[in-house]
Amino acid sequence: MNVMWFMKTPSNQFMAPAAWPTTGVAMTTTHDLPTVAGWWLEMDNPAQHARNKEQAPTAARQNERNTLWSMLTAATSKEDPLPMPPVSPAGATTVVDTSIQAVASTPCPLVLVPMEDFLGMTEQPNVPGDQKEHPNWRNRYPIMVKEIVQNKDIARRIAIIEKARNVK
């Protein structure tokens, strides 16, 4: 499994998807890890976030954001690097789209994008550990299953994957 969060260089920088091993599946995240939007907005520790919804972004996370965004723009932009999106819901949308494009551009034979990332959700389905802190597997999608094929965010993200994978 080539999970974006774990694909790092020896210097702890995010690794370009083109350099990921070709023997595995490529994915933005898993059910036990933060969604892309949740990570960008620093909502990936639900217990901590619930205690302090007004927490300021940490310097360490901002450094990680810079590193991730550098990798994403290098992997997806044919021109000058794109400006880093703000730490906001709109910025998170840009990062989700760009992450999906980067992961889809890997040479891996299979790409998986969790529904939470297709929908741009911030909460991950499972947080390993004590269920008193975070009730696992209880998140609900913001749309009904029958609406998935008509959802504009999902349609846009599927088109991003198709373009990156050269699907006609």
UniProtKB/TrEMBL annotation:
<dbReference type="InterPro" id="IPR017853">
    <property type="entry name" value="GH"/>
</dbReference>
<dbReference type="GO" id="GO:0005975">
    <property type="term" value="P:carbohydrate metabolic process"/>
</dbReference>
<dbReference type="GO" id="GO:0004134">
    <property type="term" value="F:4-alpha-glucanotransferase activity"/>
</dbReference>
<keyword id="KW-0119">Carbohydrate metabolism</keyword>
<dbReference type="Pfam" id="PF02446">
    <property type="entry name" value="Glyco_hydro_77"/>
</dbReference>
<comment type="similarity">
    <text>Belongs to the disproportionating enzyme family.</text>
</comment>
<protein>
    <recommendedName>
        <fullName>4-alpha-glucanotransferase</fullName>
        <ecNumber>2.4.1.25</ecNumber>
    </recommendedName>
</protein>
<keyword id="KW-0328">Glycosyltransferase</keyword>
<keyword id="KW-0808">Transferase</keyword>
<dbReference type="InterPro" id="IPR003385">
    <property type="entry name" value="Glyco_hydro_77"/>
</dbReference>
